[in-house]
Amino acid sequence: MPAKTRHFLSLNDLTADELRALIARAIELKRQHYAGEPNLFARGKTLAMIFDKSSTRTRVSFETGMAQAGGHAIFLSPRDTQLGRGEPIEDSARVLSRMVDAIMIRTFEQSALQTFAEYSRVPVINGLTDLLHPLQLLADLQTWTEHRGEVQGKTVLWLGDGNNMCHSYINAARLMDFKLRISCPAGYEPDQDIVQTAAEQIEMIPDPMQAAEGVDLVVTDVWASMGQEEEQALREKAFAHYQVDDKLMAQAAGDALFMHCLPAHRGEEVSASVIDHPDSVVWEEAENRLHSQKALLEYLLS
Ligand code: CP
Ligand code: NVA
Question: What are the beta bridge partners of residue 156?
Fold first, then answer.
């Protein structure tokens, strides 16, 4: 029997040591890239990427990362695959995984991703589901480490929707042992079962100004995620007091950073003054999607 295939469906598929090693490797791959040192770890390998939702960063970082590593990436949209015409997930997984070396999927249900992984011979990567967005955490943790060193013991504020990004922050808080304050309007809290897995690291503080006091990192995300477009107006009302603005950042520690997975809506979840301020590291955070996903690919393909 071949060794069990490693998947990356959640940050919880990694141990704390593996996550730390990936972040260190991402920093090293970034250095190599800037030094012009080629690293062809994916030579002859192909990554298939299934996107049931839109993407700029995830698609471009994976395609570019595979090209830089000497491999190839294939973009698959439901508009022109048989998966989009109802070919079962199980069959698609069996077929694709006999051709390619890894498969990334961005879709709605975490359970569809899990089913795909069960039938795949090669590593499956979560490119975002309604439940989780673990790839973004690799980039966020890399960015935070580059700017501030060890994240253990520090305090993060997650402000806004208890969504897929929030859930992945909860997983990261448990693995990396940082404190996570979560401030959400009533009815938009994260999944309680996920919160329970990191009960020691988490504090739920509904009042944003109180939650922001002295934190080292402020993170937010859109009020309406992909698939929730029809709730936009309702959510704008619910989240009106949950904007990251200058007043909120003034509550945080003097050297607090701001992050956002992007795309952002200036004037909704974040003010232009915050996202365009020097303490905002969103552009490096976006760039680090490339380096951290190369580290992940190197790990999964080896
Ligand atoms: N942050 C992120 O995943 O961006 P895309 O939706 O552009 O891939
Ligand atoms: N929470 C957002 C993240 C986008 C990268 C969404 O799911 O649309």
Answer: 180, 217
The kind and range of the H/E element at 115 are helix 110-118
**Rounded distance from Cα 1 to ligand 1 centre (Å):** 37
Query: What pLDDT, in 10s, does the model give residues 172-212?
Result: 999 999 999 999 999 999 999 999 999 999 999 999 999 99
Cα–ligand 1 centroid distance for 199 (angstroms): 28
Mark whether 7 is an active-site residue.
no
Predicted local distance difference test score (pLDDT) of residue 4: 85
Atom number of ligand 2 nearest to Cα 228: 8
Domains of the chain: 11-133+289-301 (3.40.50.1370), 136-285 (3.40.50.1370)
Ligand closest to Cα of 126 equals 1
94 is a catalytic site residue: no
CA nearest ligand 2 atom 3, residue: 225
Q: What is the mean pLDDT of residues 19-37?
A: 98
How confident is the model over 268-283, as pLDDT tens digits? 999 999 999 998 999 9
Task: List Cβ neighbours of 20 (8 Å cut-off, separation of 6 or more).
Answer: 176
Indicate whether this model's pTM tops 0.90: yes
Q: Collapsing DSSP states into helix, strand and coil, what is residue 160?
A: coil
Short-list 210, 207, 242, 205, CA closest to 223: 242
Ligand (nearest to CA of 225): 2
Q: Decide if pLDDT at 1 tops 60.
A: no
pLDDT in tens, 92-113: 999 999 999 999 999 999 999 9
pLDDT at 2: 56
CA distance 126 to 221: 18
How far apart CA 10 and CA 6 sit, in angstroms, is: 11
